[in-house]
């Protein structure tokens, strides 16, 4: 039984800390980088208890495994994350209301709400085509940085089990866009994090878990409507997911297989030695017989 974790350094989101808080913040991130995704929520809770003044920084900087909730109005599942949270309530991208209800809740402006609604429809189709099943939610918000800029997050949660010796596996992909106008084009800055955990005891590999983060940027044209923005971001998400999936398959899974091959011998060392001795003995006897 073997446990293998792949851990990639995550790119933290911007935060505002000072002096001693800087050291505490970086120490917390350093701990998170060394843990499997399934352990992150518990650690974040402990960090927030130890340093309450850094709670907002850690909650917005550390990507955690995605959770799912069913929309009370539409009956559709949606993803819970820091980008649709206000206090202890979460906003459904389908009803645009918080559950449980929240007074004076922060809602996206009408124009971004239109983008959000269209993007949810398109990325639901994307999830069905690429994942067969799963939950996808898209959230848009105003980053309050400059005129014409906006931000959008695409979140995909897929659970699989019972395939090719897999007891259970969870794939969470988190795509966060910052879109900024630059002349006659828009700069699309994408940060993607994949959180993966697998239990595959039938293969000799007990647990494979970890996170992987990459960034990309493209300058692309977009018309006056939201459709062009959704198309541009959709192409970037598709390219990024293909790249990261290929990297995970060729690098991490391949490396884990090589390590297991070096550490584990199904026959056992003693049996291997006996077989080698028997082969040497037979070879010596055949050589002596041929010499007669």
UniProtKB/TrEMBL annotation:
Cross-referenced InterPro entries: CapZ_alpha/beta, CapZ_alpha/beta_2, CAPZB, CAPZB_N, F-actin_capping_bsu_CS
Pfam families found in the cross-reference section: F_actin_cap_B (PF01115)
Molecular-function annotations in GO: actin filament binding
Main location: cytoplasm
Gene Ontology CC annotations of this record: cytoplasm; F-actin capping protein complex
Keyword S-adenosyl-L-methionine included in the entry's annotation: no
Entry function: F-actin-capping proteins bind in a Ca(2+)-independent manner to the fast growing ends of actin filaments (barbed end) thereby blocking the exchange of subunits at these ends. Unlike other capping proteins (such as gelsolin and severin), these proteins do not sever actin filaments.
Family: Belongs to the F-actin-capping protein beta subunit family.
Protein name in UniProt: F-actin-capping protein subunit beta
